[in-house]
Design brief:
By secondary structure, this protein is mainly β. The protein has strands at residues 6-14, 17-28, 31-38, 41-51, 54-61, 67-76, 79-85, 91-98. It has one domain: Lipocalin, CATH 2.40.128. It is built from no helices and eight strands. Strand 5 (54-61) and strand 6 form a beta hairpin.
Length: 100
């Protein structure tokens, strides 16, 4: 089991305000799968890759409008810091802490 596996309580600071979610990570070598579940639904991780403590992944958002989010983050112990890029809408910080 990788040091990044598990559930993370996250907040993404989007133009719609702070979006709370639970980001679930399941590693398999240098790749990972999972989901990011919040009030607007669950986004599945696509193309999840791991390089040391750096993660890259995509999520297809449906609400409030369809678009692919491109994400890059790092894990440091029990802290996750990421950037979520929403194309023309810019990038937003996502922070997380590992669940108990």
């Amino acid at each position: 089991m990788s040091q990044i596996d598990g559930e993370w309580d996250c907040i993404t600071k989007s133009p719609l305000g702070e979006q709370k979610s639970v980001f679930t990570i399941k590693t398999d070598g240098d790749t990972f799968t999972g989901s990011n579940a919040g009030p607007t639904g669950t986004l599945e991780v696509a193309d999840g890759k791991i390089d040391g403590n750096t993660l890259t992944w995509k999520m297809d958002m449906k609400v409030p409008m369809p678009m692919t989010l491109t994400c890059t983050g790092t894990v440091d112990g029990d802290t996750l810091n990421a950037q979520v890029s929403a194309g023309a809408f810019g990038s937003f910080p996502m922070t997380g802490t590992r669940r108990g």
